[in-house]
What does this fold into?
Amino acid sequence: MGYLFSVLAAYLLGCSNMAYYVGKLNKVDLTKAGSGNLGASNTATLLGWGAGVLVGAHDIGKAALAVFFAQILLPELPFVGAVAGVACVMGHIFPFYLKFKGGKGLASFIGMSLILNWQVTLVALVLLVLITVVTQYIALGTLAASATVPVGIAIVTQSLWVPLILLTATVVIFCKHTDNIVRIRNGTEIKLLSTVKGENLVK
It folds into this structure.
């Protein structure tokens, strides 16, 4: 029952989608503009970096809180933090009230991972920044970061349970980025520099 409670509570927390709220306030349907993603990167691309940072902070924070409270309230349950964290990420990606079409999960994945193992997460963030800057594609940095965390935690802890739980979220994040990979191959993916310059902002 403890695991069930943590999964349901974390999933509902994850369903809170700041990109959706910000889009509504600005009268922009982010599900139909840009990448169609209700996350920080699409928000920044279309509505500016201020909105993007707000969305990213919210998405990171909700997953971090899900892990933190699960570990505090249910310390007797092994791996409950990882379970709750993944449930929160799934809530972000598949919110029930948005027809299960939310964001792509990176920010919430990072928030979860920071509480579980901040050292490995910092390495993943460095890779995220480096790969994104070098390739100009946020999606490639995202995939590298989401793969680095479970592998890194497995190496550091010499245990497979938490990495295997996190790997479920990594697989979903990879699946959610298939369209980005197709656009990268076709040369139609929006590049980082274009977003920084605000070339795709909704007027």
Remarks:
- The chain has one domain: 2-196.
